Amino acid sequence: MNHSLGGKNLAEGQKGAIWADFFSMPLLTAVLFGLLSKKAPAIAPKIIVPVHMVLYGLTKVIPFFSQFHYLYVVFALFVLECIIYFVCIKAAPRKTDWEMPDAKVLDMTPWKTGKYWAIAGIAVVVLMYIIFSPLVLA
Question: Where would you find the membrane-spanning parts of this chain (predicted)?
């Protein structure tokens, strides 16, 4: 049986993995704004999830969008969802700032050398990128 959705053959390797695309980006956006914004309202994800599902679904059934890789589509939807979040934060912010509750389970004192380790980690990533790029090994 051949099930096709937007040009992708679900019988050949996709097998439902496409359904994860309907939820992954709105959830990532909700987590991102939930952690980074103290004023993110609860209405924003309730708007973003259905908007993402409808728009992403339309990109799967409208032939024009089959020329674009799905990551381009998901990125464009991510940008749109960020804009919607910013509008929701400006239009209907939370009444009180959200604060992370401290359960007093861990010592949250910043490391004395934490910034040095962060710089070292970034340097290692950049170095690995250069080593495995066409400049050196690839």
Answer: 16-35, 47-65, 71-93, 114-137
pLDDT in tens, 37-96: 888 898 999 999 999 989 988 988 888 988 988 888 889 999 999 999 999 999 988 888
Confidence band of 2 (pLDDT split at 50, 70, 90):
very low
> Tell me, what's the pLDDT at 16?
54
3-state SS, one letter per residue, for the chain:
CCCEECCEEHHHHHCCHHHHHHCHHHHHHHHHHHHHCCCCCCHHHHHHHHHHHHHHHHHHHCHHHHHCCHHHHHHHHHHHHHHHHHHHHHHCCCCCCCCCCCCCCCCCCCCCCHHHHHHHHHHHHHHHHHHCCCCCCC
41 vs 34, 35, 67, 96, CA distance in Å?
9, 12, 36, 10
In total, the chain counts a number of residues equal to 138
Over pLDDT 70: what percentage of the chain?
A: 84
